[in-house]
Amino acid sequence: MRLLWGSIGGATVLVVAALIVFFPNTGHSTQTPIDESKAPTRFHVPKTVHATAAEKAAALHTLGEFVHSAFIRQNLAASWPLATQHMKLGTSRREWLAGDLPVVPYPADAFRTFGATLKYQYKGVLGYDVLVLGKGNAAGRDVGQQVYACELHDVHGSWLVDFCYPRKTL
What CATH code is carried by the domain that includes residue 136? Predict the structure, then answer.
């Protein structure tokens, strides 16, 4: 009996060894292909250009309207013209008005107010951290405070929201 079990074990080891030798890794390479025929793309940090007080006020006005519309999903038609084409990619106006837009919602029954802090500014671009505060009710305590990262672009003299996504919950 020992001879039988030993033979089966030895045969199994030989089969596994043969499979490893004759059939090496059949997976695809994980190496990133590099096209050396093209010049490399270099990233340069844009030069900081300070926005005027009027530009900051206009951007904050847009952001305020956007938060009160898109974040809490009330009067969504008001937020559609406040978004850039980049933000609207993959979302039709009909989907947007139905509440399927690329902004994580904050429950309307929990929303109390918001505050925005300017984080960066480049020519025609303003980046804000937006703190959304909840009410003192149960819904507000459940969702807590939320910080969103939002960027606004100057598009033909109007400040439009290019993206808003939640960064962290406090």
Answer: 3.10.450.540
